[in-house]
UniProtKB/TrEMBL annotation:
GO terms for cellular component: nucleus. It comes from the Eukaryota. This is Methyltransferase-like protein 22. InterPro entries: Methyltransf_16, METTL22, SAM-dependent_MTases_sf. GO terms for molecular function: protein methyltransferase activity. It comes from Linum tenue. It holds the Pfam family Methyltransf_16.
Length: 235
């Protein structure tokens, strides 16, 4: 999406995850994600992370306490045999402003990575997790089984201004306090541009300019981005 695009012009977009589903920008849908537990996982750790829980109806009316605050029930997450099941409430199609209500491929990839870390290591145990661009909250729901505290914040979209603000915030957060690790799932989203009369990924190159691999930094030397890392092979 071009950073100069007018948000006042509503355009419907659909995640590739939802292709083939009936389009309806207003209706809420519940999808049950079944995640197979890989072989070699310690059974005690797995059962400790994902205990069987009573499923909560997604259409249950909202309750409030005496102070008027919402009484929240955790979304269902339970282990069934060799699988972990998660229920996510989302929409199929949305405007640009509402893309955080959809499930995106990058969200699923990052969730798979987080789940692998949780099952095969204690690296995330007791951490304080801050997720920028949480969307439906799938990643946060997973890491919440082992983290001390999880913060979920609003969605991030391909706008140059928002990209600048995001990385300014990240640079500040990463440079303060104790050592931190940033995991970034990036999805290259294509749109048809009337100006270019072509399929483009506007905003992607600007977003990508903030992140460099170690190999790229060796070539660029002094002009390297403050965010240097490595790609994680999830295949």
């Amino acid at each position: 999406m071009d950073g100069g695009e007018d948000f006042g012009e509503e355009k419907d977009v659909t995640s590739e995850v939802h292709l083939g589903c009936p389009s309806n920008s207003s209706a809420l849908h519940v999808t049950y994600f079944t995640i197979p537990i890989p072989t070699g996982v310690d059974s005690c750790r797995c059962s400790g992370l994902f205990k069987r829980r009573e499923q909560v109806p997604m259409d249950k009316p909202l309750d409030v306490d005496d102070d008027g605050d919402l009484v929240l029930t955790r979304r269902s997450s339970y282990q069934d045999g060799g699988n972990v099941k998660l229920a996510i409430q989302h929409i199929i199609t949305s405007s640009i402003r509402g893309v955080g209500l959809q499930v995106w491929k990058a969200e699923l990839v990052l969730s798979d990575f987080v789940l692998h870390k949780m099952l095969f290591s204690s690296e995330f145990d007791g951490i304080i997790s801050l997720e920028l661009g949480a969307g439906t909250g799938l990643v946060g729901m997973l890491v919440g089984h082992v983290a001390k505290t999880v913060f979920l914040t609003a969605d991030v979209i391909y706008s140059d201004d928002l990209t600048d603000a995001l990385f300014d915030l990240l640079e500040t957060l990463m440079s303060l306090g104790s050592e931190k690790v940033l995991y970034l799932a990036l999805e290259k989203r294509y749109n048809f541009s009337l100006g270019d009369l072509d399929i483009v990924a506007n905003g992607y190159s600007h977003f990508r300019s903030y992140v460099r691999s170690e190999e790229e930094c060796k070539e660029e030397l002094e002009s390297c981005s403050p965010f240097v890392g490595r790609c994680i092979d999830l295949s």
